[in-house]
Amino acid sequence: MRSALKKLPIDRIRTEVRSIDGYHLKSYDCPVKLNQNESPFDVPKVLKDQILDRVSKRQWSRYPDPMPMDLVETLAHRSGWNPQGTIVCNGSNTLVQLVLSVSTSTGTKVVIPSPSFSLYGLYAGIYGGHVVNVELTRDYRFDMTRILDAVTQEQANCVILCSPNNPTGCIVSNEDLEELLDSTDALVLVDEAYGEFSDSSALDLLPNHPNLIILKTFSKALGAAGIRIGYLLAHPEITREILKAKIPFDINVFSHVAAMCILEHDDLVEERVSYIREERDRVFEAIQSTKGATPYPSHANLILFEVHDPRQTFQALVEQGVLIRDVTSYPMLSRALRVSVGTREENERFLESLSQTLCEPVPARN
Ligand code: PMP
Fold it and tell me: Is the beta carbon of 219 within 6 A of some atom in ligand 1?
C-alpha cells in the first residue's frame, strides 16, 4: 500500500512541465494541404534516386559522423560565416530547444513577441523560463519599442524573433534589429525558417554582434521538411557551449546525404522560391478582393487573414477538401486563419472554396 508521504511517479516530473499544454496538430485527410507552410514541390525523382544510391553505398552498421563536417562547411560557406560558428541539427525546432536548454532555467526571462511560433514559449516554459510576451501591433507587426522596453525592464536573458513571423508573415528590419542588438546584452535568437521568401536576413549583422543567433531550416524554401535538417549560425564562443548540449549522431546517414544533394541543386530552390513569392502576392490580392476576408501582408510562404467566423470557414474549407490552419486559439487572432502558399492549382482551389464559403464582411475590430 502506498504511504501517505510517498510521491506518485508523476510528481517526479517538474511542475513547470506538467502545467504546459504540449504541441498538438489535429490531422485531417484533405487533398489540398495548405496547413503547415511546407513546400508544395517534392524533391524531384532524379534527385531522390541519386540520394538513395549514395545512401545505399554508406555502411549502415556504423554510426554516422558525430557532426557532418562537409555539410557544416557547405552551409557556413553559403552563409558567409565560419564553420566553427555553425551547428547542423535534426531540424531547427531542436535548435530552439538546444539554445533554451543552455540559456534558460527557473525564472529566466525570455521575451517573445506574440502571436508567434508556439514552440518558443513551450520550450522556454519546459526549462522553467518566465515568458514575457510582447503583443504585435494591431496590424500584426513587431512592436520594436515595446520589445526593447521589455528586454531592458525585465532584464531578459533571451529574445526570440521569428522573422518572417509565423503566423503573421511580418519581419524585423535589420535597422530595428541592430538597434535591439546594440541596446541589450541578451541573446537575440532570430528564427529565419521562412527567410528565403523575404528580402531580409540578419546574416549581415552577425560579424559585429556576438549576442545574435540565427536559425535556418531545410523544411520550407528548400522543400525538404521530411529530412529534418536545421542549422544555427552564431559566434563560436556561443556555439561551443550550445554544442555541449547537442546529442551526437543526431543527423542520420540519410538526412546527411539528402541535405548535401539538395544543396548541390540550388537552381531548383531559387526557381521554386520565386514561384512561391509570386503566388503569395497573387493569393494576397485575391483574398483582398474576396468579400468578407481581410489578408495581412506577408514576407513568408503563408498568409494570415481574418474572416467573420473563422471556425465555420475552416470547417467549410475542410469539407471542400482544402486544409488550412485554424489559428483562432493564438493571442489576438480570434478571427484569423492562416493559409500556406501552394501550387497555382492548389491556391486556386483554396480561393474558389473561400469565396464560395464567405458571405459576410469582417466587422471592424475594437
Ligand atoms: N521555425 C518556425 C517559425 C516554424 O514555423 C517552423 C515549422 N512550422 C519551424 C521552425 C520548424 O522547423 P524545422 O522543421 O526545421 O524543425
Answer: yes
Backbone angles phi, psi at 109, to 5 degrees: -85, 130
Alpha carbon 7 to its chain centroid, in Å, reads 38
φ/ψ (deg, to 5) at 17: -70, -45
**Residue 127 three-state SS:** coil
**Cα separation of the two ends of the chain:** 58
| Cell numbers 541519386: residue | 50
Which DSSP string do the residues of 26-45 spell out, in sequence order? -----SEE-SS---SSPPPH
Mean of pLDDT over the chain = 95
Q: Which residue has the cell 516554459?
A: 125
CA of 72 to the centre of ligand 1 (A): 19
Q: Output the CA 4–ligand 1 centroid distance in Å.
A: 45
Largest interatomic CA distance in the chain: 68
Predicted model pTM: 0.95
pLDDT (tens digit per residue) in 317-339: 999 999 999 999 999 999 999 99
Provide the percentage of residues in the chain whose pLDDT is more than 70: 97
